[in-house]
Amino acid sequence: MFSRFKNAVIGAVSGLETNGIPAPNDPHSHNKQTLAPKFLYGRPAFLNLSEDEVQMSADHRLRPIIHPSMPLPHHAGYAECVNAGKSKWNEDQAVYRQGVLTRVEYNDKQGVQKFSIPYTYYGIFDGHAGVGAALCASNQLHHILHEKLVDAQDDIWIAFSEKKKLKSKPSDLLITGALEAAFKEMDQVIAEDRTKYQAAGGCTALVALFILDKLFVANAGDSRAIICKDTKFTLMSMDFTPENERDRIRRLAEQQPSLLGQEFTSKEYVRPPKSSELGKTIMYRDAHMCGWAYKTLQVDDLKGSVITGQGKRSRVMGIIGVTRGFGDHDIVSLYQRTPIKPFLSSHPEVQVHKITNVTENEVLVMGTDGLWDVVCGAKAAEVVAKSLNTFMEKERYVSAATCLVGSARGSLVSEHSWQLKDGKPSSADDISVFVIPLLPYKLEYEKLLGKYSETTEN
Predict the structure, then answer these.
(1) How far apart are CA 8 and CA 411, in angstroms?
(2) For residue 346, how many other CB atoms are within 10 A of its CB?
(3) pTM of structure
(4) Distance in angstroms (rounded) separating the CA atoms of residues 189 and 392
């Protein structure tokens, strides 16, 4: 029906186990159901979908793969598909924006001159327990980041014009700081909006920023970015889950036991303790310990560990499977309704990649965990390399993104049951993928550098 909707021709779930329960005595809970959402549900604006197409995009039986009808910057690729029925709507969101940092200079010979540093921003946000936080982040984070970059633009300009790092304010640290500050402010905005709008869950955040000769990747959550070069790949982010943030969360719990209520403990045990074992010895370790020790089992030791489960099934307080991102200000533990937000963080890990030595077939792949749950980095690099070698330049990156989504979605074998080609279960989650060529940003920087050098020399 629609040319952008491709079904089977090409070719688990983290987040909340249960929806967040309003915290006790929450001053916002009484009227949340009567408040309107801040942003109405829709798919990324650059897809230009009609209302009928938005409805069709959420068909859990077909799970159509959607991509843009108009080109993104430098023909970057994007594709997405909805989950297999775990939520009504696709809770992923994506966005790209282009901006400039402008500086006006004056000299006696040439008078007033205006210089601009362009930048390009891409973001992927994986929502859980609702679409609200992901919609807010996709609509607002880039505006907040632009303000932070403008605040630092004079120093960024000095570093660029002198073609060297400032000793006190290296441009890398200024841009990294702008990303970190923007993530924190975005989370604060979502918290403050709870009195004005209907709050819905939280979201992870993965952002790529191309500026000057660098690529900055900021990640808070379990979405992932890799750089693919031929069939090789390099990680550009790490996943933040209860499993790999176990130490941070347990140390916070040990230092501030009041955050645990009467339900949880910072200790972990070699096996779950039982009430029948009270008075007997059990092997345990606390958050400050690397090794194990023995203690006599007491009533307090029957509390649940603040981190439960292993791997993708690990949860904070038995509820949430991601430890960084935006929102989740109202979720609480299941029984005593202890707030969980103090253990979650909006602080991103920022990795920097210099793009002055990139090659033609080098691309950045950004994807939500719906991709990475079933497609490893090596497989993703293989799919991308095949697409780049098969399709024409204007189609190759969109085709690569579409093939990646198709590789994770698999094929429908029975109602709501999707399988990969090898017969293993495919991803049942929402899947969103960007495939972004790096070479154009290298050329863009070289052009800017040449233009600035020519102007200043004259």
Answers:
(1) 6
(2) 23
(3) 0.90
(4) 43
